[in-house]
Structure formats: structure tokens, C-alpha cells
Amino acid sequence: MSFSSETKAELCRERLSHLECTQAEAYGVLLFCNIFTPWEVRITTRSPDFAQRLPKLFQRAFEITFDQMPQEGELEGKLTFLCSDRKKIARMLDTFGYSVETAVFQHINYAALEEPLSKAAFLRGAFLAGGSVTDPKKRYHLEIATTHYYVHRELQALLPELELHPKETNRKSNYITYFKQSEAIADVLTTIGAPLAAMEVMNAKVEKNLMNGVNRRLNCDVANVDKSVQAAQIQIEAIRRLEQRGELAGLPEKLRETAELRVANPELSLVQLAELCSPPVTKSCLNQRLRKLLELGKAENQMG
Known about the structure:
Mean pLDDT: 87
Shape: rod-shaped
Structural class: alpha+beta
Number of strands: 7
Order of helices and strands: HHEEHEHHEEHEEHHHHH
Low-confidence stretches: 300-304
Helix content: 55-70%
Number of helices: 11
Strand content: 5-15%
Largest sheet: 4 strands, antiparallel
């Protein structure tokens, strides 16, 4: 099951309690479903959980049944719910201030969504009918699509009242309201009644940040190793030059020891090399010795 399907399954576990919220959710479904006209209501979904919720939702909201529904036990593929009975549709329209006698323009009637809970329920219905959310382990994206321009524009105006601030775009004949930030997506999911899905989004973000931190540290460690190896090679080259000119044997004992240890252990860090000295010295002390060897090696090279 996809993350989007799991999210809709969680939303469909929300109880149908207050009539106003139930009607608001049904309103969101109607405005973001396939067809909503005075002559026909057609809702198509691939979510079996939404398909099981729809008949209960419309019975509670309007006291009506669909004229056509998926057959009992049919829970795969496209599941279609159809209502063409004019009286039933008139009851739906009347609930939200529309009229069968006049032309129906697709608009959101804000008067039917005065309370914050009603707005949240409306958004839940809109998401169930026309929304999707991407698996947060892959990327962050939640969207709600509609073919109705004014519904889209009015949803953009409604969402800030829930402290949600979407972006918008067009895709073919659809108008898309979308969110790309993990925090914004989690806020939407929490608002519409899917706190578990919201938690998954935030957990995915924590895991990504953790992995990014690990990768950054690994990259830093690799870069440091590369620098150490490169520095060791330069030091060894300077020591070789001193050896070729017969100067190495005449150096002070501490410098000779350092030179021998560096040549024998080119892969070791300064800290590790310092511990091999007899007696062990600090990293700073060993670094000073190696710098002296570099200076002597360069000087000899220039003299040659």
C-alpha cells in the first residue's frame, strides 16, 4: 500500500460525529470529485477505505444513498459512486446554498464553512477526493487537484485561515494546490486528521537529516585523510632528498627518529605518529619536527 493510500486509510478512521463537520467533509468531496452538477454526481476513487466511508458519509450528511455503487467485495481498481436522482442532488445543492433552477457555478460557499473544524473537515474531504501525498522517504509533496478554477482560487484563500500556506500550479486541465516543505505537509495532515502520517513525515525528515550529517562527516573524514596522505608524501619526498645528499645521518637524533618513523609509516596521522616516538610527544611537537625536515629538504633541493 502506498503512503498516500495509508494516509487516506487513516483519515477514513475519523468518526462521523457532528453533522456540520460531516456535511463539510462531504462538501469537500463534491467540489473535488469527478463530476458535481445538478444532473449528476460521480465520485471515482482507488482507495478502498474511502470507498467504504463514502456511503456512510453521504447517508449521514444528506440522508441519501447512491444510485450506483461498486459491488459488494469489490475493493480494487477504480471504484465509482454515481447519483443521478434529481431530488437527491437537489438536497445536496440546497445544503450548501446552491439551486437546481439556476446555473451552478463551481464556487466554495464560505458561509457553509464558518468554524475551524468545518474548514478542516472540508479540507479532509477535498484531499480524499482529489488529493495525494508522496512517500516522505522519497520526497516531500502533497497536492489537491481540481478542474474548477474558482474552487482552486477559493481554496487558496481558505487555507490561510487554517494557518496553511500552499503553492499553486497548473497541470494539463487541472489546477493544483500543493505543499513541498515537510513541516507544511505535516501541518496539513495533522489538520485534516492524519497525525500518524504527519509523524511519519517528520520522522523521515529526522532520518534524512541524520544521514546527511553522517555523509557530511564521512566526506569530511575522507577529505582529511586525503590531505594527510598528501602531506605525508611531501614530507617523505623532503626526507628522501636529505637522504640522497647524505644529510639525514647528520641530523639531531629527534629529527632522525621523526624522519624514520614518517618513512616507515606514511599512512599514519600526526597523532598516531607522535605516539610512536620514544618517548611519545605531542602532535604539535611532532608537527614542528616535520616542518623542520621540510625546510631542510627544500633548502637542500634549492642548493642542488
